[in-house]
Amino acid sequence: YPYWLLLLSKYTNNNKIWQCSYIEWSLHEPYPGVYNFDDIADLEYFLKLVKDEGMYLLLRPGPYICAERDFGGFPFWLLNEVPKKRLRTNDPSYKHYVTKWFNILMPKIDPFLYGNGGNIIMVQVENEYGSYNACDQEYLLWLRDLYKSYVGYKALLYTTDGCGYSYFTCGAIPDVYATVDFGASINDVSQCFKYMRATQKRGPLVNSEYYVGWLAHWREPSPIVNSYDVVETMKNMLALNASINFYMFHGGTNFGFTSGANKYDKLKNSDYLPQLTSYDYDSPLNEAGDPTEKYFKIKKLLEETNFVVSNEISPVPAPKGDYGTFTMQPLISLFEKATQRIKPIESDVPLGFEIMGINTGFVMYETILTNEQKDNKFPVNLTISTIRDQATIFLDQVQVNIIPRKYENIPVSLNINSTVQKLSILIENQGRINYGSFMEDRKGIFEPVTLGNNVLGPWKMIPHPLNETSWLSTIEPQKNVVLPAFYKTQFTLPDNPLDTYLDVSGWKKGVAFVNGINVGRYWPSAGPQMTLYVPATFLISPPGLNTIVMLELEEVPENLSISLTDKPILFGPINILYLIKKRKPRNGIQSESKETLKIAERTFIVDYECNEFLKDGQVFRYISGSLHYFRIPKPYWKDRIQKVKAAGLNAISTYARSRKLVLQIFLIMQLNEIQPESIQTPKFILNCQKQD
Q1: CA 74 from chain center: how many Å?
Q2: Angle, helix 227-239 to helix 293-304, in steps of 10 degrees
Q3: Catalytic positions, please?
Q4: Farthest-apart Cα atoms in the chain, separation
Q5: Predicted confidence (pLDDT) per residue in 374-423, tens digit
């Protein structure tokens, strides 16, 4: 979070300064009734930073946010509390927990609503609901009324859906303003707005998620969206007097185990695609918050079209630390009892992560083999009915196979002689599905495991959620360890820390920690991401000692070396084990608001006759950028906000996450010294002559 303000300032050098952000439910309520609003979860501090920078906000509280986060921002424990297939529906248990969460969240937001003197002008209801198969209109009406009970007429409620009639059929909500989302494709602009107009007959055109980049999965090339297409599509939207929110303007990083996954085919587990740790997104501000070519082209267009661009700061790439190579020392194997931070759980049958109360990381499933289950002469087939998401098989701590999710329920041949005593299966949670019909993505093994004709059991399950690693400080390095194992190095920096990148080329797959902070999953053997972003705020100034710990699952390089470099590698080689379908970025449109909102002495309303937003009676258009506070270290929040402002935007959109609650906050920057009339663009905005 130290970077939040600097980021926001980079937005404001681009005029209509809004920001849009989600609120992530799982971040703020990791366990039922346990709330977190500290450090990177300090939502009120983030909202204040945006307001202090003079930006408006589009808030997206969800409760579902997608955002390529684990379980779409939902807390994992909902899988235990809500019946199957009842999330995002009118189910009483689901509504109970949403109501309870909103009772905590909404009072924190209330002072920042526009009608209360704040800067939140729009609040999103749900998130791309037209892309979800439930299509439960009773639920949408209930959720709308819940929002109204908190927001009232103090901000405008809106929805966002894709570019197509079908999305609006299920996503639009009566008396909620419907908007569309689509990417940088010159030919789609008019058509996508036609879909919006089919539902939202009057009012300003809005692209609530203008995709200027795209998400990336392991084993896929990192997507690139051409800057020319971004600018030309933007010109077409400005010519139609549309308001725009860039998704993403700054992506950031999925630190820890927060990245999600996608799955598009009901019958094929091979279509399970976990997302990278990096959320660079090919955004105008890159993962480290530096301006890119795309940033300056957007800024130039806004200047050329008479938008007022702030010159308070001139964003330039920040220096990075190139600290050299370090040798990791073997520390301890995951098989050692000292690594067991949670008491093992015993059961006749294997249990899933959620049933055991485990959210992230790994679980080791162990069972003792009987003589009847062994065969000295012939191989025997091991069949694991469910693998969510990767299984590493060990016989007496010797790795014999790795089975990815796509091969679950397919027999694997093993040689098991009479000397073998124990079968161990390490299951890795690679991220819960965050979008579409397959979101109820439980982890672990939760169906029978067979060896030949024998059902195996009983089982001892050893959870390794890796919530913290401070206990490793008491472990002395060893010469050799059995994988999977922890490795460690320590060093002193030559001067004050700079942002840097942990290069793990040569290692295979695992998790890295810098000074006890989980900087994310690494998987260079799959690609394309080869480095992990390490903010300067994670490092210790000299003469303090920095510590890097890595849990390596599969194989280590002979020299055990890692490096801290000044350049990211997000376009490394890719190991493609299966055919990857090309997917077109989502497009979208959403629901309709029919009534003018009256907000005490401050109003933000829709003029349906002239198809405009009116802020305190003046014509208003926003250019917003999505920025997720939960992907940015708190010391950087101000930096990122300022850079958004510096690009000429006047708002920010964000989610409010309680592990993925979507408060897409359009932080629309309110330029204190600029009158609304001077913000408008004569080239694009026509005067509306109202009829008597």
Answers
A1: 11
A2: 30
A3: 128, 209
A4: 94
A5: 877 889 999 999 999 999 999 999 999 999 999 999 999 999 989 999 99
Dihedral sign from CA coordinates of 440, 570, 579, 394: negative
**pLDDT for 57-85, tens place per residue?**
999 999 999 999 999 999 999 999 999 99
Token pair in block for residue 572: 């490394």
Structure token digits, residue 88 = 């995002």
Convert the pLDDT of each residue in 288-312 to its tens digit.
Answer: 999 999 999 999 999 999 887 777 8
**pLDDT of res. 20:** 72
Say how far apart CA 472 and CA 466 lie, in whole Å: 11
d(CA 192, CA 186): 11
Same fold, 342-464 and 470-565: yes
Q: Where are the beta strands (DSSP E) in 241-379?
A: 243-250, 261-262, 273-274, 324-327, 329-333, 345-347, 362-368
The pTM for the full model equals: 0.91
Q: Is the pLDDT of residue 523 over 50?
A: yes
What would the pLDDT profile of 649-691 be if each residue is shown by its tens digit?
A: 999 998 765 433 333 333 333 333 323 233 232 222 334 555 4
The confidence score (pLDDT) of residue 10 equals: 64
Q: Which residues contact 396 (CB under 8 A, 6 or more apart)?
A: 420, 421, 422
**To which CATH superfamily is domain 3-314+585-679 assigned?**
Glycosidases (3.20.20.80)
Which of 137-141's residues contact partners 24+ apart within 8 Å by CB, and which partners? 137/170, 138/90, 139/88, 139/89, 139/90, 139/95, 140/173, 141/173, 141/174
522 class by beta-carbon count within 10 Å (0-12 exposed, 13-18 middle, 19+ buried): buried
Q: Which fold would CATH assign to domain 342-464?
A: Jelly Rolls (2.60.120)
Query: What kind of fold does domain 470-565 have according to CATH?
Result: Jelly Rolls (2.60.120)
**From CA 36, how far away is CA 30, in angstroms rounded?**
8
Instruction: Yes or no: say if 369 and 416 are a contact pair by the CB < 8 Å rule.
Output: yes
DSSP letters for 474-506: GPPP-S--PSSEEEEEEE--SSS--BEEEE-BT
Write down the domain spans for the chain. 3-314+585-679, 342-464, 470-565
What are the tokens at 486?
A: 């922890």
